[in-house]
Amino acid sequence: MYKSDVLIIGTGIAGLTTAIHLAQKSPHLSITLVSKTQKEECNTRYAQGGIAAVWDLKEDDLNKHIADTLDAGDDLCDEKIVRIVIEEGPKRVQEMIDWGTRFDKDENQHYDLAKEGGHSEHRILHYRDLTGAEIERALLEKISTFQNVKILEHYYAIDILTQHHLGYNVTRVMSDIECYGCYLLNLQNLQVETHLAKITVLATGGSGQIYKATTNPIIATGDGVAMMYRAKGHVENMEFVQFHPTSLYNPNGENPCFLISEAVRGFGAILKTKKGEEFMHKYDSRLSLAPRDIVARAIDSEMKVSGDEFVYLDCTHLDKKEFVAHFPTISSKCISIGINPLESYIPVVPAQHYMCGGIRVDEFGKTSIKNLFACGECTSSGLHGANRLASNSLLEGAVFGYRVAQVINDSISNIQLNSSLPEWDAQGTKDPKEMVLITQSIKELKDIMSYYVGIVRSNVRLKRALDRLHLLYIETESLYHSTTLSPQLCELRNLITNGYLVARSAELRRESRGLHYTTDYPVKHSFQQDTLL
Predict the structure, then answer these.
(1) Which residues sit opposite 182 in a β-bridge?
(2) What are the backbone dihedrals phi and psi of residue 86, each rounded to the nearest 5 degrees, phi first?
(3) 240-277: pLDDT as tens digits
(4) Is residue 482 classed exposed, middle or buried when 0-12, 13-18 and 19+ CB atoms within 10 A define those classes?
(5) How far is CA 444 from each of CA 237, 490, 495, rounded to the nearest angstrom?
(6) Which DSSP string corresponds to 400-424?
(7) Which residues contact 225 (CB under 8 A, 6 or more apart)?
(8) What radius of gyration do the chain's Cα atoms show?
(9) Which domains does the chain have, with CATH numbers?
């Protein structure tokens, strides 16, 4: 049994920012960070485009960024949260710069601000097309300077510890559920360890692996959301799955799909059909720089009408030297599969990219479970509403990481560690003999979600998805309770839970709004609505 003052699950921008601010202000606290693989492997690392913040006050202002965010969120954002994140964002970005994060500058040594879909001004700070990796590098270097922070690598979070593990009947309507820590699977020896903490923070990222075509790394299995739901905590707005309009089409298949950043369209690239004809004018006056939900549906519509498997992104008219300087990774990737992006069109397709819903939190990252906080992509904070504005996600992680740390610093002295939790009981379980049962179920899940709960939905498709997900759930729970744990089995269990939450939330939302479009209810309601599960 292991003990910490604060246990943080996840080592992306949200988890690391929380830990850094905690360690700076309270060096007496013992802080444990948990990564299911290497500490640098997280969703943050794969963010290409950049981080949005009002930087050039001569050309931009906070109200413009707020308005752009509210517009992209399609009337489902919490304006209070939007203002908090946008107004506090520049200070959090400056902190990252002070901690060693590098962003590209022009010849005058001013930050080279980019413009992306849905933004009215140039306000995206970036480092080539590797912004997330650069931020992750700087944050990991900063966290290594603190003596009171320990990072556990290759540990998989299984379940949040609550009164349920003390023998009490915990229900979703209870207002006094408490978190005491987490069961962690040590992937080095496959032993389950009990990790107790006064406060636990979920910063586990999104659930991008529930679809076949996804830009997310293979670790994005929605672990935090699934744990929260099993612990009877509140989860909301899971139907709002953002599909990035432009992942690189690869006929041989790739997991994850390679992302052609939004910044490429911000740089001037134009979407065209396979016949080489522009089409975005039929869908939005902002053309290729419309918000992602609009662009993704437009591409999906064009592909269905034509029967083509992809559309094109035309970069051939762009400045060759500048393009390679801004997008070296994208250029190299395209060339590696035989496409010179400055001479030939890039074939692109929509792919699942970001979760706008998740664990319900307030403006300080508090969840419905006491002593349990959450921040980053695993949450539904109210910032994104029905559709995330490009490059707002890294900003959200930084702002909420700071706010979570402040509340913990102010309150942790009043919280006692509960040491009466039982150790993990593996009696009666056997080693799994057929791993094919797990791998095939994951494939089946991805097919169900891709075919029935994709960019365009219907009541018939959603019912079929829920029926098949229920069968997968029954089969997987039987495996879970009869065999010893493996990371593959735990991930399958969490993926099925996330798939169910997305499909069930989509079924409950009887309108089309933002990222959720249904042929049965094509009109948006005139009032705000959350789907709380």
Answers:
(1) 160, 195
(2) -70, -40
(3) 999 999 999 987 778 889 999 888 998 999 999 999 99
(4) exposed
(5) 24, 16, 11
(6) HHHHHHHHHHHHGGG------PPPP
(7) 204, 207, 235, 238, 355, 358, 359, 378, 494, 497, 498, 501
(8) 22
(9) 2-239+356-414 (3.50.50.60), 246-350 (3.90.700.10), 436-518 (1.20.58.100)
Query: Quick one: pLDDT at residue 235?
Result: 97
pLDDT of residue 56: 87
Residues 218/515/232/190 CA torsion (nearest 10 deg): 0
Alpha helical stretches, state H, 153-238: 223-230
Cβ–Cβ < 8 Å for 58, 405: no
Q: How far apart are CA 20 and CA 38, in angstroms?
A: 18
pLDDT of residue 530: 83
Q: Say which residue the tokens 């791998």 belong to.
A: 439
Burial string for 461-470 (b: 16+ CB within 10 Å, else e) reads: bbebbbebbe
Give the strand pairing for 124-125 and 379-380. unpaired
Burial of 48 (C-beta count, 10 Å sphere; 0-12/13-18/19+)? buried
- Kindly compute the dihedral angle of the four CA atoms of residues 364, 369, 371, 373, in this order, to the nearest 10 degrees: -40
pLDDT in tens, 354-392: 999 999 999 999 999 999 999 999 999 999 999 999 899
518: β partners: 457
Name, in order, each residue with C-beta under 8 angstroms of 448's C-beta and a sequence gap of 6 or more. Answer: 464, 465, 468, 469, 472, 499
Tell me 355's DSSP state: E
Q: Is-contact 292 388, C-beta < 8 A?
A: yes
Coil, strand or helix at 428: coil
What residue ranges of the chain have pLDDT lower than 70? Answer: 432
Quote the CA–CA distance of 197 and 133 in Å, as a whole number.
Answer: 30
Q: Measure the CA–CA gap between 523 and 517, rounded to whole angstroms.
A: 9
What is the reported pLDDT for 147?
96
Other CB atoms closer than 10 Å to residue 458's CB: what's the count? 15
What are the residue numbers of the active site?
A: 292
The pLDDT value given to residue 116:
87
Phi first, then psi: give them for residue 260, nearest 5 degrees. -95, 100
Structure tokens that stand for 163 in this block: 């009164």
Using alpha carbons only, what angle is made at residue 312 by residues 311 and 315, rounded to the nearest 5 degrees? Answer: 165
* Amino acid identity for residue 25 in this structure: K
